Amino acid sequence: MDLSGKEVSISTSVPVLDEPIHESGNIIIAKNNKEVIGKLSIYGGQRQEKRAGINLIDVGKLKAVTKNGINFTPNEDGSININGTATNDTSYFLRDGTLALGIYTYKCFGLPDNLYANCWYCGNAYGEAVKKITSNVENRNYVIELKIPAETTLNVTIEPMLIAGEYTAETFPEYEPYGVMPSLQYPSEIQSVGDNINELEDTGTSKTENGVTFIKTNEGILVNGTAIANVAYTFESTFKEYSAGQRFLSGCPARRQW
């Protein structure tokens, strides 16, 4: 996690100081700490770019129930606790609803290999195996039904996931719950908004010059081709006055002139 130093609070294990030491900045030097540091707290501001969630199974809509000796308990993080001994064949709907026409893939993290989910119209998925679901009929209910045979004893936590597109066991993404990301349990990439911000404003434009193509994207600048003569890309075309202090230029390939 990239933290920009806003405030650092340091206290010693032996109360040799009347108050904790307070320092701020990206490079911290704790003064007068005569004893071993016992506690270090760093505070900084960050933001997380939100995106649409990819999991189509909303565990928040499921209810906690006990069926045939098996307790099903949905959790806020999108997982489901299952425990007890089944006195009869038991089922639990993980999802009940229509799907837009297209290809989907289902996987249930944490499900034992001897149990399966019946994906209506598409077959069974045992354990953590992935299952392709093809929605080719409009307004059809594509139910995902967890099956537990009689006399099965369980104490597990599962994380069901249904996503658009076709995936294999190797390409299926890591688990995330339903809803807008990030969540506290499954954060997305954090961007620093404290002192470590990018002061370079890229005012350049996409171009092709001397056999080299420069393409501006949201992630940076894509450079491709073989230079037939010297070529340059101008990041900023205006002069700026910066305050005193160290700055670092990163993201540029080695053995090039900058």
Give the uncertain stretches in residue-range form. Answer: 1-17
Strand order of the largest sheet: 5-6-7-14-9-12
Task: Assign an overall shape.
Answer: elongated
Largest sheet: 6 strands, antiparallel
Q: How many helical elements? A: 0
The total of beta strands comes to 18
Quaternary structure state of the chains depicted: single chain
How would you explain this protein's 3D organization?
This protein has 258 residues and is mainly beta. The chain folds into three domains: 7-48, no CATH class; 59-164, no CATH class; 198-258, no CATH class. The chain is built from no helices and 18 strands. The strands form five sheets. The protein has a six-stranded antiparallel sheet with strand order 5-6-7-14-9-12, with no helix packed on it. The radius of gyration is 27 Å and the shape is elongated. Residues 1-17 have low confidence and may be disordered.
Summarize the structure.
The chain has 258 residues and is mainly β. It is 0% helix and 37% strand.
Based on the model shown, name its key terms.
258 residues; mainly beta; 6-stranded antiparallel sheet; 4-stranded antiparallel sheet
How would the blueprint of this fold be written?
Layout: E1 7-12, E2 21-23, E3 37-43, E4 46-48, E5 65-67, E6 70-74, E7 80-85, E8 90-95, E9 102-109, E10 116-119, E11 123-126, E12 131-135, E13 144-148, E14 153-164, E15 190-192, E16 207-209, E17 212-217, E18 220-225
Antiparallel strand pairs: 1-2, 1-3, 4-15, 5-6, 6-7, 7-14, 8-13, 9-12, 9-14, 10-11, 10-13, 16-17, 17-18
